[in-house]
Amino acid sequence: MHGNNFYGTIGSVKILAVSDQVIDRMYSLASSGHFQDVRLILGCGDMPYTYLEYIVTMLNTPMYYVPGNHDPEFSLRDKRSRAEGGINLDLKTESVNDLLIGGFGGCIRYRPDGVNQYTQIESYLRVIQMLPQLLINRIRYGRAMDVLISHSPPYGIHDDIFDPAHHGLKALNWLIRIAKPRYHFHGHTHFYRNNLEPQETVVGTTKIINVYPYKILEV
Ligand SMILES: [Zn+2]
């Protein structure tokens, strides 16, 4: 479908998003055609990078990810701090398959020595770092972002106010409000306690989706 845009047809992109849990049956799902036509892999954090590398090798399609609080701190010098074959999208935006994707790694700080953890105020400062790119996108493409991936959920949405490690980030609510992505994929919150919790919430023009443990979506 790509390449038809000159003629007014917007191609759809099939996305596989993964977070937080290794899916042992990934191989059988792939061989049963479950991931057929997937054109984009999104990692929302807390996955072993070797596992992300396995998925990108298997599906052979672009992969973008953000680190979670159980992932190592990103370092250019350390190969183990990144997933080969994928792009760490933390605080960046990229255009791929006619989609503008933006990334925001980490979660709320709940341990003084934890990596990829940020206070609410630090998270706002991180979003501020993204503003120039969002502005450039708006000038260049007429929109700031189509798809946001983050590890943390926004504040008050799919988060857990009773658990300090699972408070959502208020800066993400702000980012959604100013960038207006059509989709926001996040991880970090697992609903093993209460399966009645919603996995999708619409805020304004954004559909917020809890990826855990994986989602397939055509956008
Ligand atoms: Zn997490």
Largest sheet: spatial strand order: 5-6-9-10-12-11
Shape: globular
- The CATH class name reads Alpha Beta
What fraction of the residues are assigned to beta strands by DSSP?
A: 15-25%
The CATH topology comes to: Purple Acid Phosphatase, chain A, domain 2
Number of domains: 1
* Structure annotation, total helices: 4
> In CATH terms, what is the architecture?
4-Layer Sandwich
User: Which ligands does the model contain, each kind named once?
Assistant: zinc ion
Return the average pLDDT rounded to an integer. Answer: 90
Number of strands: 13
Largest beta-sheet characterization: 6 strands, mixed
Describe, in plain words, how this protein is organized in 3D.
This protein has one domain: Metallo-dependent phosphatases (Purple Acid Phosphatase, chain A, domain 2, 4-Layer Sandwich), CATH 3.60.21.10. The protein contains 4 helices and 13 strands. The chain is an alpha/beta fold and 219 residues long. Helix 2 links the parallel strand 2 and strand 3. The model is unreliable at 1-9 (pLDDT under 50). The site of zinc ion has 7 residues, from loops.
Task: Summarize this structure as a short list of keywords or feature phrases.
219 residues, five-stranded mixed β-sheet, six-stranded mixed β-sheet, globular, alpha/beta, 13 strands, 4 helices, binds zinc ion, Purple Acid Phosphatase, chain A, domain 2, disordered N terminus
Write the layout of secondary structure elements.
Layout: E1 14-18, H1 26-31, E2 38-43, H2 49-59, E3 63-65, E4 87-88, E5 93-96, E6 99-104, E7 107-108, E8 117-118, H3 120-141, E9 147-150, H4 170-179, E10 183-186, E11 200-203, E12 206-210, E13 214-218
Parallel strand pairs: 1-2, 2-3, 3-4, 6-9, 7-8, 9-10, 10-12
Antiparallel strand pairs: 1-13, 5-6, 11-12
Helix pairs in contact: 3-4
This protein binds zinc ion.
